[in-house]
Amino acid sequence: MSTPIRVLLADDQDLVRVGLRIILESEDGIEVVGEARNGREAVTLGRELAPDVICMDVQMPELDGLEATRQLLREGTAAGILILTTFDRDDYLFAALEAGASGFVLKNSSPESLVDAVQVVARGDALLSPDVTRRVIESFARRPAAPATAPAGIKAPAGVKAPAGEPTPTLTPAPELDALTDREREVLELLAAGRSNAEIARELYLGEATVKTHVSKILQKLGLRDRIQAVVFAYETGVAVPGRP
Question: Bridge-partner residues for 9, per DSSP?
């Protein structure tokens, strides 16, 4: 018998936590091991209980879910953090991704979607839905200009100019990219376009297992946590360009 997925729930509303517990524990192989009523409790229980997945609300008293996520990841938690919110807003989405969350699910999603999200994150994968990918791409496409300076290793996307009156950025590609093979770079570009492993396999005439291996090597070489970070990295470094197929 396989070990159940250990889940910690963090939400300040009692009824929401009860509902989430009922949904998750109705599925074989998932066990809710604790409940937190605020972000500070989420950090404490995340340390003490060592869950596989933390379902984290965004807006909570004492410490919000995004800061709780940042603290847990700084401490090296092995848990995948799934952000749950009623707010379908880009600022929450990108703040969650920037904080290092492995997924983002709206509370009005179906019970099946929640269960699937927990299982995906527990496997160590990121919940990178087509909608999330599209919004990441659109966010970069809306950026009219790059700053005149940027952190080392970040290149302004192709065609992006500095604000009027400021020097054009002379930024260099992230050195980590040199470690990628040509095939891995192709896979990274397709990841950034929102392709699934199956779609990448079909496009490059590879097996899905081979694609999965390429993705793992890309994350390892670039020092990235998951596919979501890979997408953001690809656009930040100019590997992928908004509007390019």
Answer: 35, 55
Round to whole Å and give the CA distance between 55 and 205: 37
Task: Determine the pLDDT at residue 79.
Answer: 93
Q: What is the pLDDT of residues 137-157, one digit of tens each?
A: 666 556 554 443 333 333 333
DSSP conformational letter for 143? -
221 contacts 174 by C-beta, under 8 angstroms: no
d(CA 42, CA 55): 10
Which two structure tokens, joined as six digits, stand for 219?
């994350």
pTM over 0.70: no
pLDDT at 137: 62
Nearest of 82, 85, 92, 17 to residue 46 by alpha carbon: 82
Residue 238 phi/psi, 5-degree rounding, is 85, 5
State how far the alpha carbon of 178 is from the alpha carbons of 153, 169, 188, 190, 204, in Å. Answer: 11, 21, 13, 18, 21
Rounded to the nearest 10 degrees, what angle do helices 227-236 and 208-222 cross at?
Answer: 60
Distances in whole angstroms, Cα of residue 206 to Cα of each of 185, 198, 239: 15, 9, 21
Q: Which domains does the chain have, with CATH numbers?
A: 5-127 (3.40.50.2300), 133-236 (3.40.50.2300)
Burial of 2 per CB tally in 10 Å (0-12, 13-18, 19+): exposed
Q: Is the pLDDT of residue 163 over 80?
A: no
Return the closest-CA partner of residue 117 out of 5, 223, 198: 5
Residues in CB range of 146: below 8 A, 6 or more apart:
156, 157, 160, 161, 162, 169, 171
